[in-house]
Design a protein that fits this description.
about 160 residues; about 30% strand; globular
Length: about 160
């Protein structure tokens, strides 16, 4: 059983190494940076610490008992849900966490969400399949060309979640 909760932003410093550890473990297989773990952590930490100052950016933590097994980072921007990171430890992938995560997310989003956006690394075929299943389509790339930009309608995400249509 998993427990989902929003990150209390005042606790980011104490949880940042655990959060980054999940991200680094997953991404080292898909898109290694070539930098040291410490350099990647410092760069990620500084960027996210600054980003979390915005109320619209949130992180949902995924726990099993008292152990962090994943996180979901997103941003709300004028009717858009921008999914920035969905990271689940490899030993917890495929165990129904996505449905629980999206149920929690949907029940906590404000009204007025119309569109959904996300990026997936071009080497991350699994994430690309998941985003397509959620109703998103490729409509471009990021600036450096290593990730696809996906977009879609929030209603399609709701249909996926509620399994209608």
């Amino acid at each position: 059983m998993v427990i989902l909760d929003f990150l209390d932003k005042s606790e980011f410093d104490s949880l940042s190494k655990d959060i980054f550890g999940i991200l680094a473990a997953n991404m080292s297989e898909i898109a290694p940076t070539g930098n040291s773990y410490e350099d990647d952590y410092k760069s990620w930490y500084c960027a996210l610490k600054e980003g979390l100052k915005k109320e619209q950016r949130q992180i949902i933590l995924i726990y099993s008992e008292n152990e962090l097994v994943g996180f979901f980072q997103y941003y709300l921007d004028d009717g858009n849900l921008v999914m920035e990171e969905i990271q689940i430890r490899s030993d917890w992938q495929g165990k129904g966490i996505f449905r629980a995560l999206y149920g929690f997310l949907i029940s906590n989003l404000p009204s007025g969400i119309r569109n959904v956006e996300a990026y997936a690394n071009k080497k991350n075929i699994r994430s690309q399949r998941i985003l397509k299943r959620l109703g998103l389509n490729i409509d471009g790339e990021n600036k450096n060309g290593n990730s696809y930009h996906f977009s879609g309608k929030y209603d399609d995400l709701l249909r996926w979640y509620y399994r209608i249509g």
